[in-house]
Amino acid sequence: MRPILFSAALAALVSCVSPAMSQTAPPSVPNAAPWDQPFLPPAPAWDGASRALLRDASDPWVTAFEADAEHDESPNYADTRAWFDRLDAASDLIRIEQFGVSPEGRPIYAVIASKDGAAFDPSKPVLLAQAGIHPGEIDGKDAGMMLLRDIAFNGKDDLLDRVNLILIPILSVDGHERASAYSRPNQRGPRIQGWRNTATNQNLNRDYLKLDQTEMRAVRGLVLKYRPDLYLDIHVTDGMDYQYDITYGYNGENGVWSRSPAIARWLDDAFKPAINAALEAEGHIPGELVFGVGDDPRAGLSDGGLGERFSNGWGSAAHVPTILIENHSLKPYEQRVLGTYVFLEAAMRRLAEDGPALRTAIAADTALRPAEIPANFALDPTPAYTRTFKGIRYEMYDSPASGRSEIRWLGVADPEPWSLPFYGSRPTLTLQRPEAYWVPGHRADIIERLRLHGIQMEAQDAPRTVNLDMLRLVEPRLAARANEGRVGVTVTGVTPERRDWTFPVGSVRVPTDQPLGDIVVLLLEPQSSESFFAWGLFPEVLSRVEYIEGYAIAPLAEAMMAADPALKAAFEAKLAAEPEFAADGDARLQWFYERTPFYDDRFRLYPVGREN
After folding, report:
1. What pLDDT does 20 receive?
2. Please, are residues 82 and 68 in contact by the beta-carbon 8 Å criterion?
């Protein structure tokens, strides 16, 4: 019965407009297709110059997106690969490289456009464009197909004179094939969309640091192989309505703090003006990355967080210039795909013109070795500045469904720009950079993740006893629910304990004096919210082994007080200061037990050593 009721509801929305809406909504819905979700806000009319990029359906190299009369089609995995295989066979400029296999056994591949043959000319900048990390947000695949076709056959091969292009058309290939018309309720097109998460129900855009997933390990290998000078991660939004169709951003935008300040300056000064000019010339409305604050559209905007689990946060820490593109979900698919094409082409031209300056910025940031590393960013309650914003008109109405006031976007551009406060992020923790960390050989899984990142390590071929700090975890707390298939852990702090500690064969010393040194600290400091520990990869240290019965610890505790007046005084002070402790016999005896040599010395002792 549910599909019948749902279909009836859709039919009602399509066939009539409620009295409340008829007073304010436009008389028609521009750009609407029959399969549009009719409950979405109307899209403002658009007729950009970039429509000239579309090829006629009679063209032998027309894409499925272009051939569709409504330009709302995106091909499935098999058809996409077949089209690229045909392009590869027909053009010496195009080749396909498989770089991984998905959990369900599908090849993960990149399409490479170059005039250099099998090996890239190292003097040429490399652009890596990634689509489909969230497969429902697949604009980059269809835009990339068009651009690569035009490079091969339609006079744009000059783009490869000074730049090489790598396109990942579909990163989450399994999610791409879990496709239906009901994957993305807040998005207008394509009519069939992939699923946000993978076959193992993971969100790949949370895996840039912990590297749990096959797909992210594969793409990290591709990055290490080709060392891209610019990395574009192409998404589609979920949130508020506004006039912009192509929004994008990066850590450090507009001069705010960044782990890669020279790269951020280049993106601010050289990249963003050129991209915006190219998009505007083709009839698009580019904007800075937008994340609303709360339910009120005028409450303000935020940076959306700077965490290294995301592509833009990882890129800043790894000193890989990384742009997070978020096309606007409520714009028609045609408009978004064509805007993405323009963005990709403009990015290649900008790299060709100013690639050496970007490489200089990358080198400067790669050489940084900050003594203090800010971490655990949270929304700053004080606005950083005021941002001019191109809004869409809206009204509030009383919803009988929710029983509260809801927003209704009207699909009409507000001619008056809004002035909105912009809230950045601030660190809630500052980590000190040690000389190195020591990871024990029995944690080969952790060592492998570090290797996949490209982190430099010194493997030990014999046992080594090292004088260093081992970290006692203070008040560890398990998360109330799982996140990305893991139960996270937080601590209120760590207490360093100077020890002579023996690391077995296979252990590694991980120096922080290396280009990825910031990532080393963020991964191996247990207080870091991006660390392996915080993601729950060290649960064994939270389990205490052995215990002592009351009949044994009580007389022992009494003897300890008799022998040590200072211990007795500390215990009595704790009784006086903490009534709950004083009333808890088990807690009192536990206090003594922890001060005996019988207590499990490795309980809550983090097994990674810190060399200062």
Report:
1. 37
2. no
